[in-house]
Amino acid sequence: MTTPDLERRVLRFAFLFYLLGTLGFWLVNGLSAAEEWRRAGESGVWVRALMLEGTSNLVILALFVPIALLERRFPVSLERWRTALPVHAAGVLVFSLIHVSVMNGLRVALWPPLFGFAYESYGGFLGEFGYEFRKDMLSYALMLAILAMFRELEDARQRLKATREDARTDHVITLRCGGREIRLPARDILSASAAGNYVEVRTGAGAHLARMTLTRLISLLQSAGADPVRLHRSHMASRSAIRELVPTGDGYAEARLSDGQVLPVSRGYRSHV
After folding, report:
1. Which residues of the chain are under the pLDDT cut of 50?
2. Does residue 166 form part of some domain?
3. Could you give the angle at the alpha carbon of 233 between the alpha carbons of 229 and 238, nearest 5°?
4. Cβ(256)–Cβ(262) under 8 Å?
5. 0.90 exceeded by pTM
6. Helices marked H in 44-80 — which ranges?
7. Looking at the chain, which runs of residues are DSSP E strands?
8. N or C: which end of the chain has fewer CB within 10 A?
């Protein structure tokens, strides 16, 4: 469940991200249009090209917050897409109508005093709407995607914060294993090994494959008051679970644990065992 503070952070960071992207597109598209007009023999095109793109981008930016509020009420998710899809289908239509109307109004008002001639739209309002609507659908979809991305990032940050607090106060390690959340007492974890983007966490009762890094797990165990020791860039063990350290030559060794596991110990970590 999201909170007002979380939603404000999502809106703030998503808007800043979209703003930076919009500024980039404004400069690239505006300067590209100006260069094309210059090559066609027109003069004084730089300001006009930037104003042409700028009036469109300004209106779209102004519509970001209303679209974000609509997305908050009707998020596009697997659970709610049947409800959200028709709402956003209507939303993109209204978005485009407002975009084209206000954009054209700004150009009609600004062109005579700035450039000395009236603004002429492409095929009138309907022609302009037909031209812009395809791009507006992409802009609208991009807004929804950015909002969803930043909400997921904020949710992940909150989960990490809660996991760290569980480790510190309850001495419990929370593992996300697929769609499940498993809570293990820190003292029960004997060892762990990195497996790509996952960590295989082993206890006396079995193993769990959790999505986290080995470094993150070690940090949580330390917060929980445990004494994890790094054996290798891909392996760690609880110090109390290590029963024997057997040299294998060239500075390498094997750690034999209380549950019968044998894990490699690299030269770089041997002095810490």
Report:
1. 1
2. no
3. 20
4. yes
5. no
6. 46-62, 64-73
7. 172-177, 180-185, 189-195, 198-203, 206-210, 228-232, 235-238, 242-249, 252-257, 262-265
8. N
